[in-house]
Amino acid sequence: MLEDPEQRVPYATLDAWLERAVEFSGAANLGLLMAGLPVVDPDDVGSAVIATSPTLFESLERGVRYQRVWGDGERLSLEQTERGFWRP
Length: 88
Prior knowledge:
- The chain is mostly helical.
- It contains four helices and two strands.
- The chain has a two-stranded antiparallel sheet with strand order 1-2.
């Protein structure tokens, strides 16, 4: 599998790895700690698409549009309302 550049790690496997990382690290707030890490990688197309967006809304819109490229996890969406946009 490691030789095939088209292979992907199934989301369920990634989720299990993250749960084990919490167990091994002893940090119940590991996800929060990870959220504080810099994630803009100049070699990552996803980061580039979001970081080069001219507005915050466009970066969110692009993130929603291309999210299936980055992983198989939960799908996010944006919905326009009278008061603006929200994630249902």
